[in-house]
Amino acid sequence: MTKQRKLKLHGFNNLTKTLSFNIYDICYAKKPRHRQEYIEYIDDVYNAERLTHILSDVAEIIGANILNIAHLDYEPQGASVTMLISEEPIKKILPNTETPGPLPDSVVAHLDKSHLTVHTYPESHPDNGISTFRVDIDVSTCGRVSPLKALNYLIHSFDSDIVTLDYRVRGFTRDVRGKKHFIDHKINSIQNFLSRDSHNRYQMIDVNVYQENIFHTKMVLKEFELDNYLFGTGEANLTAREKKTITKQVHREISEIFYGRNISRI
User: Distance (Å, rounded) from C-alpha 14 to C-alpha 197?
Assistant: First the structure.
């Protein structure tokens, strides 16, 4: 493996690196009370307290001091957490090579300063029993370490049917000769920062604009088991016709979210 050459900078590395991370969980809840129970379940599992814990772990992964936390559980549902963070003395720097970051049981790495945010959006379709849960997370850093090193931990912290990832490096920093650098680490794809189990579980596609240091990856589960999408009932309690109808509805929801467009009814 080729060792990455260390960039000698003039002053502080003021490149801004932002990871925007969206996850979607989809389910079918047959009756209105089941839909309400699903929303309440999701709202309880991903409340502001748990999201604060997740972001605190992310701050630890990227080596940040937490300066301030604002968190709120909304009525009737949803939650938000915002953290302001700052640099700390650097003990060990993770390289920005295209390799997966740490998992939840091995939290290491470091960052300079910026912020972390998370917002949740539970909702349900009023007619066809489909309910979805979306989480939006932003990890923005200024300094040497890329927030992509927190990606493995975040993906393993949520049960996700669909994941969309945006990573962008903005601004520039100067080396000791005064030359501008608009990115300070090699990256060909966000996929290279994901662990093997994520590659095995998800189908992935990239849309990258290398000239602008913009990277986009979409992920969707490869395997489909209807029982994993049912809330308040099980596949064994459904007729063959119901199974077919619900499977079609869930597949449609997944496809529309993954491709970002409505699909005409047949």
Answer: 34
Q: Quick one: pLDDT band at residue 243, thresholds 50, 70, 90? A: very high
* Of 123, 121, 120, nearest in space to 35 by CA: 123
Active site residue 264: no
Domain contains 49: yes
Task: Domain count for the chain, please give it.
Answer: 1
146 is catalytic: no
Annotated catalytic, 157?
Answer: no
Structural domain boundaries enclosing 205: 16-259
Q: Among candidates 137, 154, 136, which has minimal Cα distance to 193?
A: 154
Give me the amino acid identity at 144: R
Q: Which of 20, 71, 119, 216 is catalytic?
A: 119
Work out whether the CA dihedral 241, 246, 251, 252 comes out positive or negative. positive
DSSP characters for 217-258? EEEEES---GGGGEESS-GGGS-HHHHHHHHHHHHHHHHHHH
The predicted structure's pLDDT at residue 108: 39
- Given the residues 34, 115, 140, 142, the one annotated as active site: 142
**What is the CATH classification number for the domain harbouring 160?**
3.60.90.10
Indicate whether 5 belongs to any domain.
Answer: no
Kindly state the tokens that stand for 220.
Answer: 């969707």
Residue 8, pLDDT above cutoff 90: no
Give me the phi and psi of 20, to 5 degrees please: -105, 130
Residue 152 lies in a domain: yes
End-to-end CA distance of the chain: 52
- Which of the following is catalytic: 34, 114, 124, 198? 114
